[in-house]
Design brief:
This protein is α/β, with parallel strands linked by helices. 19% of the residues lie in helices and 24% in strands. Strand 12 and strand 13 form a beta hairpin. Helix 5 runs parallel beside helix 6. The mean pLDDT is 97.
């Protein structure tokens, strides 16, 4: 069974506090012009998106400079790391899953916070889980076959604390050149309703030149 692991973009959707959301405007209509067309203004960190290293690392590649292998995954580890609002994913949380992560090219971290995105959107925006800097360093330095991570919460960092910048910098290679792109704000609810493993995942970015990161449509097969 094929499933979407990314959210539909919507003007009313969640976003990092203070950041803009997508804006959609109809420019022609069938009734007046004989055809429909629309114009979208799309901030590139709104909704399910993949952060390229250049998001925080001035010497890192942008998303579109990465090889295509960074978007196609055949060895997916989806790990359960339950977290409530404001709780960090730690190095010890990840160490419990080290054998599974070592065999993976994509790591999906299931905190369960995606289940609150629709019911408590303001909490999801401002008080979500996050990766600690130590967890980011552990992932970057320990798993040479890992090519990307995916999160079922808003961002690598959280607006609720001051750790976001350091965590992003470590994850994106500012300290030792090694980096892991991050797919943020993923819809991992299908993985909670089915215990079947993922056979593969494809991450399809919007291919725009000159930007650090991009919205992605994520499809997997259970």
């Amino acid at each position: 069974m094929k499933v979407y692991l990314s959210y539909l973009l919507d003007e009313q959707s969640v976003v990092w506090p203070g950041e803009p959301t997508v804006r959609i405007r109809q420019t022609t209509s069938i009734a007046q012009d004989g055809y429909n067309s629309f114009e979208a203004t799309l901030p590139n960190h709104h909704g399910t998106h993949m952060d390229g290293p250049r998001h925080f690392n001035p010497n890192g590649p942008s998303l579109m400079e990465l090889p295509i292998e960074y978007f196609c995954f055949d060895h997916v580890a989806a790990i359960d790391v339950p977290k409530s609002k404001g709780e960090g994913v730690t190095q010890d949380d990840l160490k419990a899953w080290e054998p599974e992560i070592r065999n993976a090219d994509l790591l999906l971290i299931k905190t369960g916070f995606c289940l609150q995105r629709d019911t408590q959107p303001r909490v999801y925006e401002s008080e979500g889980p996050y990766l600690t800097p130590e967890a980011c360093q552990y992932l970057v330095e320990t798993f040479p076959d890992l090519r990307a991570i995916g999160l079922d919460f808003l961002s690598v960092g959280s607006p609720a604390n001051q750790l976001s910048k350091r965590a992003h910098q470590i994850l994106f290679g500012c300290h030792n050149g090694k980096f892991l792109p991050a797919i943020e704000d993923m819809d991992l609810k299908p993985l909670f309703s089915s215990r079947k493993p993922l056979k593969w995942v494809v991450v399809a970015p919007l291919r725009l030149s000159g930007i650090d990161s991009s919205q992605v449509t994520v499809i997997g097969e259970l």
